Please model this.
Amino acid sequence: MPVSYGEELHRLREDGLFRSMKRIEGGQGPRVMLEGREVVHLCSNNYLGLADHPGLKEAAIRATEKYGVGTGASRLVSGTMELHVALEKRLARFKGTECALVFNSGYAANTGVIPALVGKGDVVFSDRLNHASIVDGCLLSRARMVRYPHRDTAALRRLLDEHRGDGRCVIVTDGVFSMDGDLAPLADLVAIKNEYGALLMVDDAHGTGVLGATGRGTAEHFSVMSGVDIHMGTLGKALGCFGAFVAASAELVEYLVNRARTFIFSTSLPPSVLASAHAALDIVDSTEGGALRARLNRHADFMREALRKAGFDTLGSRTQIIPLLIGGAEKTMTFSSALCEAGLYIQGIRPPTVPTGGSRLRCTLMATHAEEELARVLEAVVRVGRRLGLV
Ligand SMILES: Cc1ncc(COP(=O)(O)O)c(C=O)c1O
Model:
């Protein structure tokens, strides 16, 4: 039977699930030009505003001048550059582990690391709301994937009991859930993984640089840094650059160099990115970084509480990711478009990114938003929400 992609596209449109990219002008700042109009940008993961920080740009330019723009091949083939080594040492120090290994993206890290850790005959326990790249990593691994109810450690224990003795066992969770902004119960997960002799991998794409007293992430927030076996983090969100990393024991990192296919079979990150990520970590560790984190948290607390008071369901958010649950896909996109008319860029998130009936706006804040600007954002979201009968 001939395949009709057109029909599939038609169905997506009919179901309100068709996706297209909006063209913006300018960088990932707090304001951007969207289709010819200036809007407040409330859907970037550039949480600390580092994506256009002068220190990061300077580092990228200097590295490009010294080393050029490309790395030529996978590091196992064309050699590992001093910039790779320096960044990995810095990342290991940042996460308090023996070693670290950079990957070309968070997606590549999850789809490389999980299949390296488990295979046929093993079990991977994955929170039901984990990011798609974790799900894909689990599927690629060919291990049995057991999805446990969101943040439900009692259910996880029952499932671990059911699968006792079924080969190697890994528990994997987002630290900050990317579409809900809530946190994994990491202290309980560490206790459970110790009790069951499992490995615990935490994808802290949205916590790294942001959470914890010094920005080490969700594990620092819960004071369990050393209880996590594999810290995965991204360089493209709060750190403002691109790429990802895994921080773990020297043995595990050596193993991943030999077994993680997305590391082995892919050209490595370029000098500009390695140098700017290194500069980003130095900023996160500086007084400036502390001030940016504090400002981001103030913004997030203000906005989350005010939206809740106005009647929006912000789910379990405790972070700078603030969902506004709407339910239906079409209604969500109508709200997003109406907000765009009012000068706010807040993306609608629909299935399959979120479960059916769980469509929402995903509002994300940056330290670089101005306080007065956020007061205006709040007023507009509530006004438009009321007009559409959503609150
Ligand atoms: C929790 C989580 N993990 C992994 C990723 C993938 O990271 P990257 O964008 O670097 O591929 C994302 C990105 O959106 C994410 O939210």
Observations:
- The domain at 27-47+287-387 is CATH 3.90.1150.10 (Aspartate Aminotransferase, domain 1).
